Amino acid sequence: xxxxxxxxxxxxxxxxxxxIRIIPDADHHPIRCELSIIDWELYPKHEYYDALSYEWGxxxxxxxxxxxxxxxxxxxxxxxxxxxxxxAKFNCPIWxxxxxxxxxxxxxxxxxxxxxxxxxxxxKSVHVWLGQEGQQSTAAFxxxxxxxxxxxxxxxxxxxxxxxxxxxxxxxxHIKKQVVLKETLDLYSFFSTISDYQKDGNVSDLWKTWYExxxxxxxxxxxxxxxxxxxWSRIWIVQEYVLAHHKTLHxxxxxxxxxxxxxxxxFIQKLDPGKHAVNPGIQESILRIQSSPGALIVKSATxxxxxxxxxxxxxxxxxxxxxxxxxxKIYGLIGxxxxxxxxxxxTDYRKPVSEIKFDxxxxxxxxxxxxxxxxxxxxxxxxxxxMLPETQISARREQERITLGIIDQELPTPPRVQCIQRVxxxxxxxxxxxxxxxxxxxGSRSESQQGLDHIYAWVxxxxxxxxMGITSNWQKGxxxxxQMNHACAQAEPYKVLSTLPFTS
Length: 504
Known about the structure:
- The chain is an alpha/beta fold.
- The protein has 22 helices and eleven strands.
- The strands form three sheets. Strands 6-3-7-8-9 form a five-stranded mixed beta sheet.
């Protein structure tokens, strides 16, 4: 990378990040950017900056841009992303790791990487850059939007079909049923209840669209190629995509809101390839889409398709993901795991991989105290070793010995766990004593979500419960909110408050 003398140091005691603004200009002019520094905790409502999620690409800094009036070399793929954003008249402050982090400063790099889940979780929008347009990009985007619109019609019709015969239902009930049906609807059972023909003898619109969808071989192949692009194979993409509140997907000149993709993939995941054997090409495409890395990541970010996962499950799901830095295969997933206290794992690219594994096991043991925790901790170590294997047999045996020693230690209950236990007990006591008024059950939020909101509001109202503060920026707990939902659904109350962003 070229000279980086224009970087002003960041204050790591604050939540400071750099942002760039792409200066508007004609397409044939050099790309120029301006840097600024902000404290993102001052912007808690996702209203100030965007972020870019992209693939770094092959090693080599091939294209020149201008940053703070000085030449700066970036890789080919980022140059095309910047050029596309400028052509699209994009002028919002944006966070891009290759430029906003001083890559030549290991200490800053570690500190900023440690904040990446918060950076992407706090962004107003994340722009997903898949790369330049391919020959079939138009067909892929067109069919994705068509499938999404078709699925909306199915959900709308299915919601009415499962209601009272008179169809006298409220708009809220109707919408709520559609949300539930996204997860539970069996497409083939639904179509078996719908007549092929309308009263006038014409094929019904739903059946007509259903038939037409499975004649578009080129479109299905194009979606397959789109979701198997190398962008989806990067380990950091999982976190960047999952934590973003709003995403737009860019492929060359094509731009699409990822909500279309999420709906379309929900539909495709419900398809049974065996029932479409009449067209072997489409049958193969359905199978490849359902198992594609892109579908896996989109599914992980889609509320009605995903559950918060353990680190062991994430390691298994992302075993084929790529990272130029081996440590990123752990660091890139910690921010998503429901059973690891992410603040225990400080990003440090100077630390040996084996030590990072030990840190993960210690964090797991300190947060999880169920009956099988030692057995599960060993399984987690095996998953870590499978992701980042130790090639020397003697070294692996030594690491296993140390790991077993960590697991077998009779450690005292960590202070944060004691705090969580006391908060839960205090909350239960307050609830039983009527000091916590019941929440209004009206609205579309589930009981578990209402309960979680209520617990969070109650804990926050206590100020600093038991000497431990709760972070003022709830963005830090966006992962926690989803983890809390999962913990509540799994009847694991001790995990509910363990996912709140406590600071010791």
